[in-house]
Fold:
Amino acid sequence: MEVGNSDSAVQRSALIFPADGISARLVSYSIKQRSEGDGSVDFYDYLPDLRPWLEPAFLERDFADFHVDNTPSNEWLQSENPDTWGNSCLYYTTSSKLPVNQACKDVIKSDPPTERLFFRGDLFLVKHKGSLGMGHEYIDTPEAMVDITAKVIKKMYENESLEKKLESDRNFERELEKHSELPSNNCLISFKSTRVCRTSASGNTFGHRDGCNREV
Structure:
C-alpha cells in the first residue's frame, strides 16, 4: 500500500481517486496534530495529513462530510454492506495548481465545461467515528466504499455543489469583513454564530468545513 508519511506512528487507510485516472485504491496516510501551517479547513486538533499528495494546493483543500447506513430514509446513500456504514469525509480541491481529476471525469462520464468547477488533483475518502471536532476517531477506509464515493462525486457535480460551496465561502468572508469593524465582543459572537449555522434543504445534505449543511 502506498504510504504518504512513513515517519508517523499513527497510520490509517484512505481511498484515493487518483488525478491520473488510475483505478481507485487504498493508500496509507498519517494523522497529525493541527498547526498554523495547515490552513483553516480542519478546525479541530487532529487531521489527516494529505500534504504528500495535495501539494502545492494542500491549503486550498476542502471536504464534504456524509453518513452511510441501511435505513430507507437515507435514500441514495443507503447501503446493505456494514463495511460502508458510518461517517466519511471526502477531501478534494478545485485549485488550478493541480490537473483535472481524470478518475472523477470517468465517474461523471463526460468532460466538464470550462466554466464549471471540477475536482482537481487526487481526491480522498477518509472514514471516522463520532462527530468531527467532538472526540472523533479516524478509522481505516475499506475498498467497499468505491461505489458510494463515486455516487457522491456524481451527485456533487450534478447539483453544482462545488460552485455552491465557493459562493458560500465568499459570503462567509464578506460577513467576516463586515464584523471586523465592530467591537471585538460582537465580532466574536457573530463569528461563532456563522460557524455553527445550519441551512435547511429539502434534499440530501452534506456537512462542510464551516459547520453548515447544504444540499448536494
